[in-house]
Write a structure and sequence with these properties.
The chain is an alpha+beta fold and 276 residues long. The protein has a single domain, classed as Glutaredoxin, CATH 3.40.30. A seven-stranded mixed beta sheet has the order 3-2-6-5-4-10-11, sandwiched between helices. Strands 1-7 form a two-stranded antiparallel ribbon. Helix 3 packs across helix 4, helix 3 packs across helix 6 and helix 6 crosses helix 7. It is globular and about 90 Å long.
């Protein structure tokens, strides 16, 4: 994932989060994709209400899940990622907890549920849209739990003792309702279109309007572009399908018009025949 590393280094360097890291350390900041694999849902965390919960408590609800790994005292990059996610969700038009779940897990085992609650309030206030129930949950937990989750999803990071902060990539993850990894999204900006299409993919078409599903058919995810792009072959197929439908409708209308015309002519001729 060279592009992921390069983008993360650029972002983190701009924020001062990556300083004098050597190549071996930089290799520890990456995302190794495991599409289709399942994450361990039996991991235990503490949510923003101070409750001990299983990760699986937020899955198997018939909704896809957006997962972010961060830490709440992060000086810059985590904030940029969460800000970008918040902005994308606000423009999405779908409320967390309604069509999908959102989970943010801290990778810093020293952070508390009180800190998670404060971070949650900040982002829910920023969303300015209704969030159903525990639609966006912020969690903390032991390193054994957060590290296991990070390894399962391919999120590579390390703790920089010199600067006393975590070095990590900028990414978000979209999972199916039963915990399978569906899509990786990178960067600090998450377009509402990309979020919607990723959620529709993860839900296997269970959410979204007919128009949304047609749009999904025309787009596919391009890792190089870092988002969804038009898939020309499907557009041509769809265009050909619409052409056939349009032609069929046109011919049907013409046939009905011609039939009505013939019926009218027949009735007219019958009226002209003199009665004996």
């Amino acid at each position: 994932m060279t592009a992921v590393v390069a983008a993360t280094i650029l972002l983190a360097s701009a924020s001062g989060q990556i300083a004098d890291y050597n190549p071996s350390q930089l290799d520890s900041i990456d995302v190794i994709e495991h599409p289709g694999e399942s994450i361990p849902l039996d991991l235990t965390f503490i949510n923003d209400r101070g409750e001990t919960v299983k990760l699986g408590d937020y899955f198997n609800r018939g909704k896809p899940v957006i997962l972010t790994l961060a830490y709440y005292d992060c000086p810059m990059l985590c904030t940029l990622v969460l800000n970008g996610m918040s902005d994308g969700v606000r423009e999405l038009g779908w409320s967390p907890g309604d069509k999908y779940q959102m989970i943010t897990v801290s990778i810093d085992p020293k952070e508390t549920s009180g800190l998670a609650a404060g971070k949650k309030k900040t982002y829910l206030d920023n969303l300015s849209i209704a969030v159903a129930g525990d639609g966006w949950t912020f969690m903390v937990g032991e390193e054994s739990q957060s590290k296991t989750l990070a390894d399962a999803i391919g999120f590579k990071y390390f703790y920089d003792k010199k600067n006393k902060q975590y070095a990590h990539p900028a990414a978000a993850f979209v999972l199916t309702e039963d915990g399978r990894i569906s899509r990786y999204l990178y960067g600090i900006e998450f377009k509402s279109r990309d979020l919607k299409l990723a959620l529709m993919e993860a839900s296997e078409g269970k959410i979204g309007t007919t128009i949304d599903k047609i749009i999904l058919f025309c787009y596919h995810y391009d890792p190089e572009a870092g988002g969804y792009v038009v898939f020309a072959a499907n557009v041509m197929k769809l265009g050909g399908g619409f052409t056939l439908i349009t032609l069929a409708v046109f011919l049907t209308l013409m046939w009905q018009i011609e039939r009505r015309k013939r019926t009218a002519e027949t009735e007219s001729r019958q009226k002209e025949i003199p009665r004996l």
